[in-house]
Amino acid sequence: MEFLHSLLENSNIPIFTAFILGILTAISPCPLATNITAIGYISKDIGSRHRIFWGGILYTLGRVIAYTVLGVILISILREGASMFAVQKAISHYGEILVAPALILVGVFMLFGHHLNLPKFGFSGGGNWKQKGGTGALLLGILFSLAFCPTSGVFYFGMLIPMSAAEAGGYLLPVIYAVATGLPVIIVAWILAYSVAGLGKFYNRVQVFQKWFNRIVAILFILVGVYYAIMYYF
């Protein structure tokens, strides 16, 4: 962590600075908790290496979409001379309100959704992953990126966006930042897909394991949701 802060302080290259800010965000406590939850969700498809890896890619793509769209809006607002503080306060407030119940609902849906005749949106524990198109991982990336904690809020609103507004090619910087925030998930997904998934013996009982692992992931969602609820509501 100190090494990354040292790189950040000595960086004069906006793209590199945006990347370091993204890495620092990814390993901060709150984003780290959501990334761990995302890894659990993605790795529930342990029976297919390609699903795991593409789940990591789609999760990061969701973060790219959210941070980039938000970044374009904020950069435009900031260049018009508006105050960033009010915007940050509103987004952080509503993001914090939504993330806890959303995580709990997703966890409950993963546990009991197969008993209901409702659209799954990629979050059900079963079904055809290809038909879902990885929608769940994409939506998680969007949702988790909007759950701004104090640290990630400082990095994004206090450092990245003002820097982006001052640069000619500033609209690219939120993309670099977003990719960096999802990089740990991509790396872990790749390891799970092309290292663990290559062990043939591991798959002898994969069907039984995956059934229970899906339940563990659902419980993880609920627990992280409760953690956020306690932190924001109490």
Mean pLDDT: 75
Helix- and strand-based class?
Answer: mainly alpha
- In the predicted model, the low-confidence regions spanning at least 5 consecutive residues are 125-131, 199-204
Number of strands: 0
Question: Can you give the helix content as a percent range?
Answer: over 70%
Q: In what range is the share of β-strand residues? A: under 5%
Encode the helix/strand succession as letters.
Answer: HHHHHHHHHH
Tell me the overall shape: globular
Biggest β-sheet, characterized? none
In DSSP terms, counting alpha (H) and pi (I) runs of 4 or more, how many helices?
10
N-C termini distance? 29 Å
What is the CA-atom radius of gyration, in angstroms? 18 Å
Structure summary:
The protein has about 230 residues and is an all-alpha fold. The chain contains ten helices and no strands.
